[in-house]
User: What shape does this take?
Amino acid sequence: MTMLLAIETSCDETACAIVKDGKEILSNIVSSQINVHTLYGGVVPEVASRIHVENISTVIEEAIKEAGVTMDDIDGIAYTQGPGLIGSLHVGVQAAKTLSYFFDKPLIPVNHMTGHIYANQFVSDLKFPLLALVVSGGHSQLVWMKHEWSFEVIGETRDDAIGEAYDKVARVLDLGYPGGPVIDKLAKEGKPHYELPTPKTDTKYDFSFSGLKTAVLQLQQRERKKGNEIISADLAYAFQETALKSMVSKTMEAVKEYQPKMVVLAGGVAANSRLRALMEENMAPFENIQLVIPPLWCCTDNAAMIGASGYVAYQHGERSDFNCSADPSLPMPGEI
Ligand code: KG4
Ligand code: ZN
Assistant: This one.
């Protein structure tokens, strides 16, 4: 039995979890800063790190208390090393180092993106080879895993991450931050009315969302010049359909070429109801390939997913020493 204390502070959630054998969650505390960042229309990195500093000790204490364990029961400290905001990451790294030093426990570095993928372990045992569509506020990647703990990024965004595009389009439409959940809801009332260009890249599996975001802005400006009122629900619908259909169609091309045993959705944007429906619809004909869609609570950032991935990292011998540092652009394990 392996019990890990996991810490996640890569963006705007201060989180700590106690996870047994990578699958059983004893506690999972997430302190969100969303209310503060909403005031600024997006995450302000300096503000995020300051709030992490204020909250981290309480969040760790809560996680231990709720799990009903003591530090004697803990076998290792898993922490998000990157990618993410440097100041935010540093707070989690320092907390992890302190616990590791004081209680003499091994330190396990975890890549945030592997955390999102391994969150699916709470739903089903992962089967390999596996294809993951990892979509968050900072990343949009297609990851091929031939076997456990092997990661090959076969496609990624050339510019904005999909979550970032949702947030920016929401700002254009004056819908507040974070944009994803609002656009998801609003698009349900939208009708096919506006046309937006399908994003294009010259590579098979890479994505691009920045042109689409600009197209939304230009359409809004054009309509305003003509004296037309913008129907926000219709524009949200057009943006969402265009962005998601281009992403899902690339994912399906990869499914056909790579023939995985399992396809998983991961990251904050995996909470999107239309993306979930589109994936189910498109995967239905592939009866031999299991599709796993994480429950909403483990799509967005949390520390339980760092405990799940940290457990596999621990099994594979990943350790940090006290010279370890946060890495805002940390590559996937095995990638340079
Ligand atoms: O994974 P996450 O919590 O943080 C990062 O690692 O970036 O993802 C946050 C992103 C934000 O851009 C947010 O707008 C988006 O996930 N998001 C959504 C939905 N819920 C959250 N995007 C689309 N539809 C949603 N329902
Ligand atoms: Zn994330």
The beta strands are 3-8, 13-20, 24-32, 76-82, 107-111, 130-135, 140-145, 152-156, 262-266, 290-292. Residues 44 and 262 are 37 Å apart (CA to CA).
